[in-house]
Amino acid sequence: MRSIRSSDVPPFGQHRGVGLLLSFLLALAAATAPVDVAVRPGSGDTFTAVIEGAQPGTGSGAFTGALALNGSPTEIKVAGTAERAGGRLRIPLTIRYDAIPPDWVDRFRLDAFDLRLHGTLSGQESVDWKATLAWSAVAVEGDRETADHFVSLRGIALTHFSLMESEAAAHVAVRNPFAFPLKVASATYRLFANGQEVGAGETRGLLLHPKQENALDFPVEIDHGALLGAAGGAIASGGEVDGRLNGALVVRLPGGDLPVPLDLSGRFALLSQ
Fold first, then answer.
1. In Å, how far are 57, 105, 178, 189, 255 from 252, measured between CA atoms?
2. Which of 4, 32, 65, 242 shows the greatest Cβ crowding within 10 Å of its Cβ?
3. What is the pLDDT of residues 93-148, one digit of tens each?
């Protein structure tokens, strides 16, 4: 859709209805400037949300206000040091995971989210931003080390081994940093040994307790022939090989199921426990 310019608005006396409509759209476009959001997950108790939008004036400095998501009446207090560049204001906000209200999560939608940020800049200038954004428009900054702080593979081991069949279990630690529990509707996964797929599994009905690390056991049905081909003599000696668990956790939320990808590497102990 092309943008609307003042030159596109016909003289008041010509096509009066169209002119009034376009004038209204111009005013609306000026009043609802787009907002950009970037998120930096932290490995500790906080994360950073950087919110940027068009803001008249010249001020920058300390910002204090309140933030709400998804049309929730529940707000949290936020503060940060705002920076101005090119007519836009950039406000980084450090937020505790356990400060996120459950109502925000209950109102979660898979397609988009609503945001409102309002407050004052340097104790004087008013900031009031509202926006509806697709999740795909949110920039997420982070590295593998940060992700490993929340989901990590603690080990893979055979739980049963015989000449005819084998079973294994992957031990996964999942940290829930929020102040409310999260339900895992299902987990589906494939197990690899030395880069070759050797088994798969599925489990359901898990609960991630709030503000703690949760130890989860994922049972795996092993393809006996594939394991013998991948591990070779390491099985007879009870050694270890490179292991990888690939799949997804499905977190159940009132607004829809949210898949969380799994791609975890570790050592696969071939001595039956």
1. 44, 11, 15, 17, 8
2. 65
3. 999 999 999 999 999 998 999 999 999 999 889 999 999 999 989 988 876 666 77
Q: What angle do CA 134, 137, 141 make, to 5 degrees?
A: 130
Q: Which amino acid is at 29?
A: A
Pick among 1.10.40, 2.60.40, 3.30.70, 3.30.1890: CATH of 33-140: 2.60.40
**Backbone conformation region of residue 189, classed left if phi is above 0, alpha if psi is from -120 to 50, else beta:** beta
Quick check: helix, strand or coil at residue 211?
coil
pTM of the model: 0.79
Separation of alpha carbons 173 and 206, rounded Å: 12
The torsion of the CA quartet 121, 122, 124, 128, rounded to 10 degrees, works out to 10
User: Looking at the predicted structure, is the pLDDT value of residue 40 above 60?
Assistant: yes
Residue 106 to residue 256: CA distance in whole angstroms: 10
Q: In this structure, what token pair is assigned to residue 106?
A: 């209950």
Strand partners, 166: 161, 222
Nearest to 103 by CA among 134, 79, 75: 75
Which CATH number fits the domain 148-269, given the four candidates 2.60.120.260, 3.30.980.10, 2.60.40.10, 3.60.110.10? 2.60.40.10
Residue 109 to residue 160: CA distance in whole angstroms: 42
Asked whether the domain spanning 148-269 has the same topology as the one spanning 33-140, the reply is yes
